[in-house]
Amino acid sequence: MGWRFSFSALLVLALSACGRNAVRASEKEFLADQVMVFDEDHQQAAADDHILTNREGSAGGGGSQGGGCGCN
Questions:
Q1: On the chain, which terminus has fewer CB atoms closer than 10 Å, C or N?
Q2: Is 3 helix (H, G, I), strand (E, B) or coil?
Q3: d(Cα 17, Cα 32) in Å, to the nearest integer?
């Protein structure tokens, strides 16, 4: 019976540790900070994204659309 109590307490603790709060609008400015940008060369990152989009044959999430043939 002791292990059931310990397991239940651990389960309750784990579930209560999950984040339930959304990011407030006043905190979103810090998430868009330039420090959070990992690519230093924006042109190279755009070219890499374009190549990846064409190679994978899909688009989305990056703001561009195409068929994968490279003719967009």
A1: N
A2: helix
A3: 26
The CB density around residue 53, as the number of other CB atoms within 10 Å, is: 20
DSSP annotation of 22 reads P
State whether residue 7 is helix, strand or coil: helix
Dihedral sign of CA atoms 40, 46, 52, 55 in order: negative
In whole angstroms, what is the distance from residue 4 CA to residue 1 CA? 5
pLDDT digits (tens, 9 = 90+) for 14-70: 877 766 677 777 777 777 777 766 777 888 888 888 888 888 776 656 555 555 565
Distance CA 63, CA 24 (A): 25
DSSP H stretches of helix in 17-62: 28-31, 42-56
